[in-house]
Amino acid sequence: MKLSKKQFKQDFEERLTSKFATDITKAGSQEKYAALASVVKHYYTKIWADDNEYKDETGKKQAYYFSIEFLPGKMLKSNLLNLGILNTVREALAELGINLDEVAESEPDMAIGNGGLGRLASCFMDSLASTGLPANGNGIRYRYGLFKQKIIDGYQVELPDSWLNNGNPWEVRRADKAVEVRFGGEVWLEDDGKGNLLPHYKNQERVLAVPYDTPMVGFENTTVNNMCLWRSEVPQDLDPKFQNLEYMRQTSMLSAELYPDDSNYDGRLLRLKQEYFFVSAGLQRIMRHYKSTHKKDVRNIADYIAVHINDTHPALCVPEFMRILVDEYGVGWNRAWDTTVKVMSYTNHTILSEALEKWPEDMVKHLLPRIYQIIVEIDRRRTAELLPKIGATLVHNTRIIRDGQIHMAHLSIIGSHSTNGVAKLHSDLLKDVELHDFYEIYPERFNNKTNGIADRRWIQISNERLSGVLDETIGTSWRHDLNDLVKLEVYKDDESVLECLQAAKYDDKLRLAALIKERNGIVVNPDAIFDVQVKRLHAYKRQLLNVLHILKLYFDLKDEPELDVVPRVFIFGAKAAPGYHYAKSIIKAINEIANMINNDKTIADKIKVVFMENYNVSLAELIIPAANVGEQISLASKEASGTSNMKFMLNGALTMGTLDGANIEIFEAAGEGNNFVFGLTKDEVYEYYRNGNYNARDIYEQNPIVHRILDAFIDGTIPNISMEGPEIFDSLTTYNDEYFVLRDFNDYVRAQKELETLYRDKKAWTQASLMNIANVGRFSSDRTVKEYADDIWHIKAKK
Ligand code: Z2T
């Protein structure tokens, strides 16, 4: 949009006065933020309304991304950038004596997601709007987002994330578009006299679902999509027996809290309620809109909408859509089923068995009696149809209902036309191993969509320093098409470009060093290697392997204080699920090891260990630009994709990684020698599983270095971990090291030595960094969403 500084200043000052009866000299930063956000909102409302009208008039097919999590982070700068007014506003504010970055700090992170899955959904929201694709989000407006993490005495302590306390300037409450979602009670079928069996209900619990719309503003275009989040409330006209505080409490609980588990399923009734709540509300709104805009025949709806099931949490989309078509619109079962399969598509995000959702039949039956009947009927018809064709074993292995449980992944695959994994390796594993039986029956449904990241947030906004170097070197076209970064390759031997890249990285490291000083009270050397592992704390991600390597370096230095090592700062950021005891013990151990090393004068500050508390999107935006190394060291086959790996690559860090998830595609894209690869391959891991011949204790007994490091956990060397130390020690020895940490240790140390050697050669290191940046284009989520649009949803971008 066009905006002059003069106009902006006038708008801003007026808004400050009208909202808070104050002026620039007296306003606090909260007030400045609220006024600024309000002005920005005013700027996009016209574009938003126009785009809605365009969508309704053209009646183009739209996609709906159903996700139980979104993780957008702060929205102010993203909206400014996408509106094309970031620089104008920054300069105009400066003229008023206001620093935009300071004002932007006041916005709380919108963190209604845990990690990778929720952040991916938000990257997609940005990319869908920015590529002009008509596609919307659908989720839950949790009153409390992911907990805030404090570290007290080295332990993680969780505090509530009350992100809505100062209001949310971006959302619009649409009370007129509220719908009702019903739970429990009894259902029976009665003939309507015309030969149709219709459901009748009694004693249902009714919940009002009120939508809150947040606009997703496209980058320098005219597209504004919608992220619809539902809040649960008590229906206004509820009959008197429900008009009580207890019912209100029950009802509001549905959208009160995000479940804080990443890649782990919590089988609580409230979670199942949440899943049905946003699925039913979302589909009802879609149907209403479909009817009201064009009065099109509902039987053609598959030509107008696509519904995406982001992991299995929204899998009830399948039976709920069937219910709406069959019960509410009188569509025949077969036609309804064809339509449902055409409309639905599903993404799998993990093969970890503890994450697979399986709900007890009884629970579903009591909570959602009609949905239960429909699932039973889907399963019955499919079994009858397929038994003669494919035989009992395949049918049994792929049943939706088995052993008293409803398998949500099975429901999602069977009820949709597309199942995708999130990186090549992961999608292959789905086909060849984890979902092989389904692949035999429905080979054409399986495909890969390698994840991507919203590069606008992950470089243009978070790394203005590097962005500037890129502009000066290759022009600005990369801001519109990340593939254009490949233009950087011809500067691989250009000393002045390499120096500019180094200078940018150095500045970003200074910025982070200042933050570390402020938050952790630790002074770090900006010339040291900044070696970063930021992600959820999980055994399979192997933060512990990183820790063992740190201890090795530490003992090497203790043995030989004059040892010539390149100084390193090891930086961690990680939240553990509150109920994940082992992950919390690792956090405690990292913090105690950090204290031990950072305060040991004898090693002369050669290594520092920093655990930054409360890792979230905003902190990622500060840490990742400053990284020299990104640690991506999960056990091969366990990390479906990973997405922080792509953010590190974009910001010129080199990856220290295993052959897992999207790392493989990153290594291939960046080219041989530009990253560090180590560890077991997925085939080797599966070979161990087949043979059952891994023996971790042997490694402990036979490798003196490993022996000494592990003993440090139990012999008092690492202080204050008398509970956690033995727990960690035992997990690696007695319990046979589930994630092959000890097996990969030697190769990890080997790769770390190579890394250190390369870092000593500043030019060679920077060239490798440049090659990573130059080849990151394919990891833009713009590419990813275009593939979804073309191959799965069949939606077209606005010209
Ligand atoms: C999650 O963040 C991921 C997978 C899940 O499986 C659940 C959650 Cl909350 C149920 C992550 C994967 O672990 C990660 O590899 C991937 O990059 C990310 O989803 C996005 O696909």
From TrEMBL:
<comment type="similarity">
    <text>Belongs to the glycogen phosphorylase family.</text>
</comment>
<dbReference type="GO" id="GO:0008184">
    <property type="term" value="F:glycogen phosphorylase activity"/>
</dbReference>
<dbReference type="GO" id="GO:0030170">
    <property type="term" value="F:pyridoxal phosphate binding"/>
</dbReference>
<dbReference type="InterPro" id="IPR000811">
    <property type="entry name" value="Glyco_trans_35"/>
</dbReference>
<dbReference type="GO" id="GO:0005737">
    <property type="term" value="C:cytoplasm"/>
</dbReference>
<keyword id="KW-0328">Glycosyltransferase</keyword>
<dbReference type="InterPro" id="IPR011833">
    <property type="entry name" value="Glycg_phsphrylas"/>
</dbReference>
<dbReference type="Pfam" id="PF00343">
    <property type="entry name" value="Phosphorylase"/>
</dbReference>
<keyword id="KW-0119">Carbohydrate metabolism</keyword>
<feature type="modified residue" description="N6-(pyridoxal phosphate)lysine">
    <location>
        <position position="647"/>
    </location>
</feature>
<dbReference type="GO" id="GO:0005980">
    <property type="term" value="P:glycogen catabolic process"/>
</dbReference>
<keyword id="KW-0808">Transferase</keyword>
<keyword id="KW-0663">Pyridoxal phosphate</keyword>
<comment type="function">
    <text>Phosphorylase is an important allosteric enzyme in carbohydrate metabolism. Enzymes from different sources differ in their regulatory mechanisms and in their natural substrates. However, all known phosphorylases share catalytic and structural properties.</text>
</comment>
<keyword id="KW-0021">Allosteric enzyme</keyword>
<comment type="function">
    <text>Allosteric enzyme that catalyzes the rate-limiting step in glycogen catabolism, the phosphorolytic cleavage of glycogen to produce glucose-1-phosphate, and plays a central role in maintaining cellular and organismal glucose homeostasis.</text>
</comment>
<protein>
    <recommendedName>
        <fullName>Alpha-1,4 glucan phosphorylase</fullName>
        <ecNumber>2.4.1.1</ecNumber>
    </recommendedName>
</protein>
<dbReference type="InterPro" id="IPR035090">
    <property type="entry name" value="Pyridoxal_P_attach_site"/>
</dbReference>
